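Hi Y.,

Following your request, here is the sequence exactly as I used it, all 138 residues.
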Amino acid sequence: MASLLTTLLAIPLAILSVYAGQKSYIAINSLSSDKDRAERAAKYSDKAARELWRTRLTQASGAATVLFSLISSFAIIFLSTASGLLSIFNVAASAAAYMYISGFWKAKAEVPFIAREYNEAIRKSNDLRRLLVALGIG
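Below is the corresponding structure, written out as C-alpha cells. Let me know if you'd prefer a different format.
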C-alpha cells in the first residue's frame, strides 16, 4: 500500500480524472452530432479532411490522457512501488495532451445561433484542456 500522503493526493486526482472524463465524453458526443456532415465535407475538401482528422485526434488524445490519469491514480493508491514512475508519466502525458489540444481548440471561435453542438464541444474541449493542467500537477 502506498504511503498515506500519496494515497490522500491520489484520491482527488482520481475524482478529477472522472470529472475530466465527463467533459471529454460531452465534447466527443457534441462533435458526433455533425459527423455525417463533416465526413461529407472531408470527401470534397482536403482542408476539411485535415480539420476532421485533427478534431478526432485531439479528442482521442484528451480521452486517452484522462483514462491514463485515472488508471495511474488507482495504481498509485494500491501499488506503492509504481507511484514515482507513474507520476512522471502522468505529468508528461498531461503536458503533451494539453499542448496538442491547446494548439487546435484554443483558437476556435464559437458560432452564434447556428452550431450549438459545435459550440458545446469547443467549451468542453477548453474545459478539458484546463483540467489537464490540474491532472498534470497532481
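The CA atoms of residues 60 and 113 lie 27 Å apart.

Thanks again,
Q.
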